[in-house]
Structure prediction request, 126 residues.
Amino acid sequence: MLQLNYRDAKPIYEQIKEGIRYLLLSNAIAADEKLPSVRELASNLAINPNTIQRAYRELETEGYVYSKQGKGTFASATSFIHKTREQELLTVFDDVVTELFVLDVPKEKLEQRMGNLEQGRREIDG
Prediction:
């Protein structure tokens, strides 16, 4: 399910969040599907349950999952997850583009790069 890199400078809970986020966005975990319990996942990954709890708590705060008292943690609706991630990425995009403008990168160069990325995506999608 999740792959952790213990040599990575990124904290383990962040790696868990990213892994679960990816599984949610790719629909490998369906909407309203129950995630493994904190203890179960901690045991499978051989890490402290508090690390899993932190990742789950942050994913819940971000809207990717929700909890039911006494039942566990579940995946949020796919449309909500996609909208949440879109907003996160657009915020990052705005920050990056703003910095590129400060560096005097012309708008046309950014448009060309976006066009190239779109074309590459079309080729992959077939």
User: Anything to note?
Assistant: The longest strand covers residues 65-68.
